[in-house]
Amino acid sequence: MQASSRMKNAKGKGAARGSRESLKPVDDRKVGKRKAAAPIDKSSKRMTKKERNAKKDPNKPKRPPSAFFVFLEEFRKTFKKENPNVTAVSAVGKAGGEKWKSMSAAEKAPYEAKAAKRKDEYGKLMNDYNRKQESANDDVDDESDKSKSEVDDDEATGEEVHDDEEEEDDEADEEDEDDD
DNA sequence: CAAATGATTGTTACA
DNA sequence: TGTAACAATCATTTG
Protein backbone atom coordinates (compact mmCIF):
# COMPACT_ATOMS: atom_id res chain seq x y z
CA MET A 1 0.00 0.00 0.00
CA GLN A 2 2.79 2.23 -0.64
CA ALA A 3 1.17 3.73 -3.65
CA SER A 4 -2.15 4.17 -1.99
CA SER A 5 -1.88 7.88 -1.42
CA ARG A 6 -0.69 8.89 -4.86
CA MET A 7 -2.46 6.53 -7.10
CA LYS A 8 -5.87 6.83 -5.61
CA ASN A 9 -5.73 10.57 -5.80
CA ALA A 10 -4.69 10.69 -9.38
CA LYS A 11 -7.69 8.69 -10.43
CA GLY A 12 -10.31 9.90 -8.04
CA LYS A 13 -9.58 13.50 -8.77
CA GLY A 14 -10.12 13.12 -12.43
CA ALA A 15 -13.81 12.63 -11.91
CA ALA A 16 -14.06 15.13 -9.13
CA ARG A 17 -13.28 18.00 -11.46
CA GLY A 18 -16.21 16.96 -13.59
CA SER A 19 -18.36 19.66 -12.14
CA ARG A 20 -16.11 22.44 -13.26
CA GLU A 21 -15.42 20.97 -16.60
CA SER A 22 -19.00 21.68 -17.44
CA LEU A 23 -18.43 25.33 -16.93
CA LYS A 24 -15.10 25.47 -18.58
CA PRO A 25 -13.43 23.02 -20.89
CA VAL A 26 -10.13 24.09 -19.52
CA ASP A 27 -10.75 22.21 -16.37
CA ASP A 28 -10.61 19.07 -18.30
CA ARG A 29 -6.91 19.09 -18.13
CA LYS A 30 -6.92 17.40 -14.76
CA VAL A 31 -4.91 19.48 -12.51
CA GLY A 32 -3.44 16.34 -11.15
CA LYS A 33 -1.18 16.05 -14.11
CA ARG A 34 -0.60 19.39 -15.56
CA LYS A 35 2.96 18.53 -16.40
CA ALA A 36 3.90 18.41 -20.01
CA ALA A 37 0.57 17.00 -20.94
CA ALA A 38 1.16 18.20 -24.44
CA PRO A 39 4.56 19.79 -24.80
CA ILE A 40 4.22 21.65 -27.99
CA ASP A 41 7.93 22.01 -28.28
CA LYS A 42 10.88 21.72 -26.04
CA SER A 43 11.48 25.31 -26.86
CA SER A 44 8.53 26.10 -24.72
CA LYS A 45 9.84 27.02 -21.36
CA ARG A 46 6.64 26.08 -19.67
CA MET A 47 7.59 22.68 -18.34
CA THR A 48 7.50 21.12 -14.98
CA LYS A 49 9.21 22.79 -12.12
CA LYS A 50 12.10 20.43 -12.15
CA GLU A 51 12.71 20.97 -15.78
CA ARG A 52 12.71 24.63 -15.12
CA ASN A 53 15.29 24.00 -12.50
CA ALA A 54 17.79 23.42 -15.23
CA LYS A 55 17.50 27.06 -15.97
CA LYS A 56 18.00 28.63 -12.60
CA ASP A 57 16.64 32.09 -12.58
CA PRO A 58 17.12 33.44 -9.11
CA ASN A 59 16.01 36.80 -10.25
CA LYS A 60 12.89 35.55 -11.76
CA PRO A 61 10.01 36.64 -9.52
CA LYS A 62 7.50 33.98 -8.70
CA ARG A 63 3.95 34.49 -9.66
CA PRO A 64 1.83 36.32 -7.15
CA PRO A 65 -0.49 34.17 -5.09
CA SER A 66 -4.08 34.36 -6.14
CA ALA A 67 -6.83 35.30 -3.75
CA PHE A 68 -7.39 31.66 -3.15
CA PHE A 69 -3.78 31.14 -2.13
CA VAL A 70 -3.85 34.09 0.19
CA PHE A 71 -6.87 32.65 1.83
CA LEU A 72 -5.29 29.24 1.87
CA GLU A 73 -2.30 30.46 3.80
CA GLU A 74 -4.52 31.48 6.61
CA PHE A 75 -6.81 28.56 6.18
CA ARG A 76 -3.94 26.14 6.48
CA LYS A 77 -3.14 27.30 9.95
CA THR A 78 -6.70 27.06 11.04
CA PHE A 79 -7.23 23.74 9.41
CA LYS A 80 -4.16 22.23 10.94
CA LYS A 81 -5.06 23.67 14.26
CA GLU A 82 -8.41 21.99 14.25
CA ASN A 83 -7.05 18.95 12.52
CA PRO A 84 -3.65 18.33 13.99
CA ASN A 85 -3.93 14.80 12.80
CA VAL A 86 -4.28 15.82 9.23
CA THR A 87 -1.19 17.33 7.77
CA ALA A 88 -1.49 16.32 4.17
CA VAL A 89 -1.31 19.14 1.71
CA SER A 90 -4.10 17.61 -0.27
CA ALA A 91 -6.37 17.59 2.74
CA VAL A 92 -6.02 21.26 3.33
CA GLY A 93 -6.28 21.94 -0.34
CA LYS A 94 -9.56 20.18 -0.70
CA ALA A 95 -10.99 21.60 2.46
CA GLY A 96 -9.81 25.05 1.52
CA GLY A 97 -11.22 24.80 -1.94
CA GLU A 98 -14.54 23.73 -0.64
CA LYS A 99 -14.72 26.50 1.83
CA TRP A 100 -13.48 28.98 -0.70
CA LYS A 101 -16.45 28.35 -2.86
CA SER A 102 -18.63 28.58 0.15
CA MET A 103 -17.44 32.04 0.90
CA SER A 104 -19.28 35.04 -0.44
CA ALA A 105 -17.76 37.53 -2.79
CA ALA A 106 -17.63 40.05 -0.01
CA GLU A 107 -15.52 37.72 2.05
CA LYS A 108 -13.22 37.01 -0.79
CA ALA A 109 -12.93 40.72 -1.41
CA PRO A 110 -10.20 41.28 1.18
CA TYR A 111 -8.29 38.36 -0.21
CA GLU A 112 -8.64 39.56 -3.71
CA ALA A 113 -7.51 42.96 -2.61
CA LYS A 114 -4.38 41.48 -1.24
CA ALA A 115 -3.86 39.38 -4.31
CA ALA A 116 -4.20 42.49 -6.40
CA LYS A 117 -1.47 44.06 -4.37
CA ARG A 118 0.76 41.10 -4.92
CA LYS A 119 0.17 41.48 -8.57
CA ASP A 120 1.24 45.05 -8.44
CA GLU A 121 4.51 44.15 -6.82
CA TYR A 122 4.95 41.40 -9.29
CA GLY A 123 4.83 43.93 -12.07
CA LYS A 124 7.62 45.86 -10.46
CA LEU A 125 9.70 42.80 -9.95
CA MET A 126 9.28 41.98 -13.57
CA ASN A 127 10.56 45.38 -14.48
CA ASP A 128 13.62 44.76 -12.44
CA TYR A 129 13.94 41.26 -13.71
CA ASN A 130 13.77 42.35 -17.28
CA ARG A 131 16.58 44.74 -16.69
CA LYS A 132 18.73 42.00 -15.26
CA GLN A 133 18.21 39.90 -18.28
CA GLU A 134 19.53 42.69 -20.35
CA SER A 135 22.62 42.84 -18.24
CA ALA A 136 22.98 39.12 -18.31
CA ASN A 137 23.49 39.42 -21.98
CA ASP A 138 27.22 39.82 -21.77
CA ASP A 139 27.97 38.71 -25.27
CA VAL A 140 26.19 41.64 -26.68
CA ASP A 141 27.09 42.43 -30.19
CA ASP A 142 25.90 45.94 -30.19
CA GLU A 143 24.91 47.67 -27.08
CA SER A 144 25.63 51.12 -28.24
CA ASP A 145 22.20 52.66 -28.38
CA LYS A 146 20.82 49.98 -26.18
CA SER A 147 22.19 51.60 -23.09
CA LYS A 148 19.83 54.44 -23.75
CA SER A 149 17.00 52.11 -22.95
CA GLU A 150 17.97 52.13 -19.36
CA VAL A 151 15.40 53.89 -17.34
CA ASP A 152 16.39 56.32 -14.72
CA ASP A 153 17.22 54.43 -11.64
CA ASP A 154 14.80 56.18 -9.45
CA GLU A 155 13.11 53.93 -6.98
CA ALA A 156 11.96 51.26 -9.31
CA THR A 157 15.33 49.64 -9.03
CA GLY A 158 14.63 48.09 -5.76
CA GLU A 159 13.96 49.79 -2.51
CA GLU A 160 10.71 51.42 -2.90
CA VAL A 161 9.54 52.46 0.49
CA HIS A 162 5.94 53.32 0.26
CA ASP A 163 4.59 52.32 3.56
CA ASP A 164 1.64 54.58 3.35
CA GLU A 165 -0.57 51.82 2.14
CA GLU A 166 -2.45 50.84 5.20
CA GLU A 167 -5.36 48.99 3.86
CA GLU A 168 -6.57 46.61 6.43
CA ASP A 169 -10.18 47.08 7.33
CA ASP A 170 -10.47 50.09 5.19
CA GLU A 171 -11.29 48.03 2.17
CA ALA A 172 -14.87 47.77 3.31
CA ASP A 173 -16.07 50.02 0.59
CA GLU A 174 -17.81 47.14 -1.00
CA GLU A 175 -21.49 47.42 -1.34
CA ASP A 176 -22.85 45.29 1.37
CA GLU A 177 -25.67 43.37 -0.05
CA ASP A 178 -27.17 41.24 2.55
CA ASP A 179 -25.84 37.81 2.02
CA ASP A 180 -28.65 35.57 2.91
C1' DC B 1 19.65 12.04 1.48
C1' DA B 2 17.08 14.80 -1.78
C1' DA B 3 13.87 15.78 -5.02
C1' DA B 4 9.08 15.06 -6.26
C1' DT B 5 4.38 14.40 -5.72
C1' DG B 6 -0.17 15.41 -4.54
C1' DA B 7 -4.57 18.99 -4.30
C1' DT B 8 -6.91 23.28 -4.24
C1' DT B 9 -8.16 27.50 -7.39
C1' DG B 10 -6.63 31.68 -9.52
C1' DT B 11 -3.72 34.02 -12.41
C1' DT B 12 -0.43 34.71 -15.67
C1' DA B 13 1.84 34.38 -20.16
C1' DC B 14 2.12 32.55 -24.79
C1' DA B 15 0.50 30.78 -29.60
C1' DT C 1 -9.13 32.79 -27.36
C1' DG C 2 -7.62 29.06 -24.97
C1' DT C 3 -4.79 26.17 -22.80
C1' DA C 4 -0.90 24.77 -20.25
C1' DA C 5 1.82 25.62 -16.12
C1' DC C 6 2.69 27.40 -11.83
C1' DA C 7 1.94 29.84 -7.22
C1' DA C 8 2.32 27.62 -1.25
C1' DT C 9 2.43 23.93 1.69
C1' DC C 10 4.38 19.70 3.92
C1' DA C 11 3.82 14.73 4.89
C1' DT C 12 4.61 10.97 2.26
C1' DT C 13 7.04 8.73 -1.36
C1' DT C 14 10.23 7.30 -4.56
C1' DG C 15 14.95 6.98 -6.46
Describe, in short, the structure shown:
The chain is mainly alpha-helical and about 180 residues long. The protein has helices spanning about 5-15, 20-25, 50-55, 65-80, 90-100, 105-135. Helix 4 crosses helix 5 and helix 4 crosses helix 6 (about 105-135).
Keywords for this structure?
180 residues; mainly alpha; DNA Binding (I), subunit A; 48% helix; disordered N terminus; disordered C terminus; DNA-binding; HMG box domain-containing protein; nucleus; HMGB_plant; HMG_box_dom_sf
Describe it.
InterPro entries: HMG_box_dom, HMG_box_dom_sf, HMGB_plant. Belongs to the HMGB family. It holds the Pfam family HMG_box. Keywords: DNA-binding, Nucleus. 48% of the residues lie in helices and 0% in strands. By secondary structure, it is an all-alpha fold. The chain is built from 6 helices and no strands. It has a domain of 77 residues: DNA Binding (I), subunit A (Orthogonal Bundle). The structure holds a DNA duplex (15 and 15 nucleotides).
